[in-house]
């Protein structure tokens, strides 16, 4: 058995002699070059992911904005007509100026409530996109682990 071990060691040494030192270990320059390439590829992938997610969110936001704009214009017209009708109805029992003032105050209250609702809806938008954010955090953790 000792002879067999010796011959296998000799075979390994002989094979190692035929391989060049460049084939056994990569140089520091090659490792740094590979690391730079990998980091560049990672950043490109992250940017592509961010572009795709932002495009998806922008498409949804654009569709919602279109429907909202058309609905808002139609609702605005209807509300104006209803406000004039309400003011004229109140003018039957109150002074005309007072009835229009009451309708204007009601309009102001409704406008304030709608503005607050819009502000809260804007706050619900997911920026930065969650998958991109999660992926970037994973990459940062990976880099910290492999940095030391």
> How big a fraction of the residues is strand?
under 5%
Q: How many domains make up the coordinates?
A: 1
For the record, give the distance between the C-alpha atoms at the N and C termini, rounded to a whole number: 43 Å
Order of helices and strands: HHHHH
CA radius of gyration is: 35 Å
Number of helices: 5
Q: What is the makeup of the main sheet?
A: none
Number of strands: 0
Average predicted confidence as pLDDT: 81
User: What share of residues is helical?
Assistant: over 70%
Gross geometry? rod-shaped
Low-confidence stretches: 1-16
Structural class: mainly alpha
Please characterize this protein's 3D structure.
Helix 3 packs antiparallel against helix 4 (96-123). Residues 1-16 have low confidence and may be disordered. The protein has helices spanning 2-18, 21-24, 28-90, 96-123, 130-147. It has one domain. The longest helix has 63 residues, at 28-90. With 148 residues, the protein is an all-alpha fold.
Question: Which helices and strands appear, and what pairs or packs with what?
Answer:
Elements: H1 2-18, H2 21-24, H3 28-90, H4 96-123, H5 130-147
Helix pairs in contact: 3-4, 3-5
Which characteristics define this entry?
single chain; 148 residues; mainly alpha; 5 helices; 0% strand; disordered N terminus
Condensed summary:
By secondary structure, this protein is an all-alpha fold. 88% of the residues lie in helices and 0% in strands.
């Amino acid at each position: 058995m000792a002879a067999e071990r010796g011959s296998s060691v000799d075979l390994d040494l002989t094979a190692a002699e035929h391989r060049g030192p460049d084939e056994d270990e990569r140089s520091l320059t090659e490792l740094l070059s590979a690391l730079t390439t990998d980091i560049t590829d990672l950043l490109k992938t992250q940017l592509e992911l961010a572009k795709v997610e932002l495009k998806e969110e922008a498409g949804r936001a654009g569709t919602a904005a279109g429907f909202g704009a058309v609905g808002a214009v139609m609702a605005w017209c209807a509300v104006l007509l209803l406000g004039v009708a309400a003011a004229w109805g109140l003018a039957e029992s109150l002074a005309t100026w007072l009835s229009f003032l009451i309708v204007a105050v009601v309009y102001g209250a409704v406008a304030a409530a709608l503005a607050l609702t819009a502000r809260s809806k804007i706050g619900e938008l997911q920026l930065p996109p969650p998958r991109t954010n999660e992926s970037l955090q994973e990459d940062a953790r990976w880099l910290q682990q492999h940095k030391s």
